[in-house]
Amino acid sequence: xxxxxxxxxxxxxxxxxxxxxxxxxxxxxxxxxxxxxxxxxxxxxxxxxxxxxxxxxxxxxxxxxxxxxxxxxxxxxxxxxxxxxxxxxxxxxxxxxxxxxxxxxxxxxxxxxxxxxxxxxxxxxxxxxxxxxxxxxxxxxxxxxxxxxxxxxxxxxxxxxxxxxxxxxxxxxxxxxxxxxxxxxxxxxxxxxxxxxxxxxxxxxxxxxxxxxxxxxxxxxxxxxxxxxxxxxxxxxxxxxxxxxxxxxxxxxxxxxxxxxxxxxxxxx
Length: 269
Description:
- By secondary structure, this protein is an alpha/beta fold.
- The chain contains eleven helices and eight strands.
- An eight-stranded parallel β-barrel has the order 1-2-3-4-5-6-7-8, surrounded by six helices.
- The chain is globular, with a radius of gyration of 18 Å.
- The model has no long low-confidence stretch (mean pLDDT 89).
């Protein structure tokens, strides 16, 4: 099972309705998220969620002009506690050969050979056949297609169809990023979650935890009441690991050792 299966959310500071981190942490708890995806370069945000034992992934909007530098930033965030990394590759990559993405992934793997990578990409049209997405397909644990009905000017059904139908994802899990920004409304969030469920997809993420209004977030949180026992167990394990990582970062070796014993005890069950 990929780490990002289940329910997650993104944290992106751009135009957020609130920078109140305690409030965002509470939103994550209310929705019983498995964790959050945090844009690279915000250690204060990483620390806030880590203190709450909420795991985080790092995301970076990467540029093909500097693949090794992008890889080092993602790898540094993993060193700081991220449980996985998201490569956000968009329009700048569409005219590129496979080489820059191969270089980025090789540089990341040189430091973190076993850490899961995910691809946040636009899958509309023929983009899955482009060289950079073909490279990603060989290396990622999951696709995170951006499915934004209001931004696309489409109904929920048509937006999902444009991103997912008739596509060859190579057997890699598809975990759509759904729209919770731009005043999309609670009803449309409910429709997106229903579409995820109807298609039998193993998870999704809200984009973003801070942009959603209270009513919109309540809808996203309400839906997660159906979390399975298996998902709850995996969430617990992830949070134990997040606590171990925080203790190691703060050189609290005894706390880290206790957390690791707890983790091993759960895995052995």
